[in-house]
Write a structure and sequence with these properties.
- By secondary structure, the chain is mainly alpha-helical.
- The protein has one domain (22-153).
- It is 39% helix and 7% strand.
- It has helices spanning 12-17, 23-74, 87-90, and strands at 126-128, 142-145, 150-153.
- A three-stranded mixed beta sheet has the order 1-2-3, covered by helices on one side.
- Strand 2 and strand 3 (150-153) form a beta hairpin.
- 18% of the residues are buried.
């Protein structure tokens, strides 16, 4: 029997695989990735900002509801607002609005978990003001007017000085 000659099998990928990618192919790939990044990343940041604003609005409604419940029980808004807190919302009170413990303090607390965080600037600090019109851009946390019971969300950015 005659010996067979071994035939070399040629694969098409050997021909192309050894040359690598051309500069144009690399540039096109980088451009496509850059365009996709430019489109997707801003949308992700918009979603984060939108979620923060929605959460802030929800926490503001919770605070407003607590103030309204206090007014319903007492007939006047919480007036004992210290800088940083509204203890008449977070602690038990009597009919005259005094904060305390015991049998005579049967109203509240209206915010059991405390003053909620304002997610826009990550602050739950309550600023007391007697002004009807306030520049909310100047304050982080919450702005409360004890004369009217009005509460607003401060919009000062977290890292602003």
């Amino acid at each position: 029997m005659p010996k067979r000659k071994r035939q070399r099998v040629r694969h098409s990928f050997h021909k192309f695989g050894s040359r690598g990618l051309s500069l144009i192919e690399i540039v096109v790939s980088v451009l496509i990735i850059g365009i996709l990044t430019a489109v997707v990343v801003p949308q992700l940041f918009d979603l984060t900002d939108s979620a923060r604003e929605n959460s802030s609005a929800s926490n503001l409604r919770r605070l407003q509801n607590a103030v309204e419940s206090y007014i319903f029980d007492h007939g006047f808004p919480p007036t004992y607002a210290t800088e940083g807190d509204i203890p008449q919302l977070t602690k038990r009170t009597d009919g005259s609005g005094r904060v305390g413990e015991g049998d005579g303090f049967h109203l509240g607390p209206y915010m059991v978990e405390g003053i909620p965080l304002n997610p826009v600037n990550e602050s739950n600090y309550v600023h007391k003001t007697m002004e009807d019109e306030v520049d909310v851009q100047q304050f982080a946390g919450w702005i409360y007017n004890p004369q009217t019971g009005q509460i607003q969300a401060g919009e000062k950015p977290r890292n602003a000085k």
